[in-house]
């Protein structure tokens, strides 16, 4: 029986993405599948790198059960930089909101030094030791150029390489850069350039995984709002729905592109160097993004969402020809 090269794509989405993705990883191991390519962004990048270092799904789940908010971020203490008095006290502009915002000196709200220390303890200091035979891809955005950059321990085949793909010794900086949600967390500087979370432009990093030409790809979404979505009842609901719509649109666009390539590869194999790749999308059910849930790193949420991810993925895998 031929060996299937499997890629797993972990979407971003805060605590919900971390927990649901870990539950899916448990189901993948339950099914006896072993990934060859792990692609992740934001919280999904943490899962991808953890599994890439050789951590099994049970250890990943245990890690998330043990961590809480204090292990990942802390309030900023430099309150003296919060406001620029000279800008605040100058003559107000005609646009009052612009005047107030222009006087705020903070560009981000939470300190991620705890996360750096936590993951250094979990994954080790220095370059991550990626397990033999595994490829890990972590996506981030160059803040100055707006370029989506893919950091990886192994480049895809020459004919599938895209600008922005960089072979590096993956480390904690690359993980934190991918998870540096703008406004919430500080950008991460790597070789003199500032990087932030790619979730707003590439929340489901499917394309970089497909560049390695796997036989199959399991795509893990982080949000499962029902459609049509209900009207938001609060500002928190509105923020969550906005994030949901952005992520959902990007996911559908990437999936549709991949399916179109599959159709072309089957119908006219001589017209494209790409091959058909079996795709499976796994999404949570009835678990929409929420503004408060994004940073809700608690053992109770972890236990609930990992169990849900394991259950939903097990059902999907049972129907997937690749798993059978």
UniProtKB/TrEMBL annotation:
Signal peptide range: 1-17
Keyword set includes Heme: no
This protein's UniProt keywords: Hydrolase, Lipid degradation, Lipid metabolism, Signal
SUPFAM superfamilies: FabD/lysophospholipase-like
Keyword Signal found: yes
Pfam families, A to Z: Patatin
Protein name (database record): PNPLA domain-containing protein
Organism annotation: Prauserella muralis
